[in-house]
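// run 5 | inverse folding | seed 20
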């Protein structure tokens, strides 16, 4: 029997944040469609969660740097009426600073973090709005708010996800579809190992366990948050940031330049 909660499609589900979302959503009673490149790990996770929670779990091997694979995931998302949640998590991190960076690697990062994430988020928004239900969880990063502290291309990719979420929320406001951007800080997953780094030089008090991250993010979703920063104790700081951004709105597009620019060049 299919879950009454529907199926959660989780990208980047073979490890880390994606696998943890899969476990937490299975605990809640969702069926799963797990997407990643590592078919063996996906199959093992699917079997584990079927046995543990009695849910249905399917896998879809896909490399989201490849347009054809992204379209296969999109087609499944649009065609499968049972899909009610998208966890848009797949992504890769930086392997150094931009001045020493491999531009081909950065292009691959953009393909996953931006191009694929955008296509799946928009497809989900369109499909869920038509179905009259659905939830989109876009995994961004705190560096979307503080790009100076990290690799510029990675930070920009996560700022894209935040802006996309905010814009889609505005378009979806008259529908029952929920949307959330999750902004993790440093999180203890495999991502740093994959790019040749580690946590050895980082204050352990700055690194959140992935279980705590996902649990907190789901609580934020339940509470109706559009933007969730799991490590932020004082929520008023984020509210103030949002209010300042909104206050800029009326001043961003006018017929004449600001007076400080009207002196002769």
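// decoded
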């Amino acid at each position: 029997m299919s879950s009454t909660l529907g199926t959660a499609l989780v990208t980047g589900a073979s490890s880390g944040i994606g696998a943890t979302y899969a476990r937490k959503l299975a605990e809640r009673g969702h069926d799963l469609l797990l997407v990643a490149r590592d078919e063996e790990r996906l199959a093992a996770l699917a079997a584990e969660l079927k046995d543990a929670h009695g849910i249905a779990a399917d896998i879809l091997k896909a490399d989201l740097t490849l347009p054809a694979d992204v379209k296969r995931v999109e087609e499944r998302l649009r065609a499968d009426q049972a899909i009610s949640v998208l966890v848009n998590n797949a992504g890769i991190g930086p392997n150094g600073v931009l001045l020493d960076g491999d531009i081909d690697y950065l292009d691959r990062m953009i393909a996953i973090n931006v191009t694929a994430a955008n296509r799946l988020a928009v497809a989900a928004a369109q499909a869920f709005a038509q179905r009259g239900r659905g939830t989109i969880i876009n995994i961004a990063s705190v560096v979307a708010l503080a790009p100076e502290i990290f690799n510029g291309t990675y930070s920009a990719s996560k700022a894209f996800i935040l802006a996309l979420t905010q814009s889609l929320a505005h378009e979806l406001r008259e529908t029952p579809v929920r949307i959330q951007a999750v902004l993790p800080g440093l999180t203890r997953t495999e991502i740093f190992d994959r790019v040749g780094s580690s946590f050895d030089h980082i204050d352990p008090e700055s690194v959140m366990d992935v279980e705590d991250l996902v649990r907190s993010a789901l609580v934020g979703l339940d509470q109706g948050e559009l933007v969730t920063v799991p490590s932020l104790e004082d929520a008023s700081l984020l509210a103030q940031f949002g209010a300042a951004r909104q206050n800029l709105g009326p001043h961003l597009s006018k017929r004449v330049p600001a007076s400080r620019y009207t002196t002769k060049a």
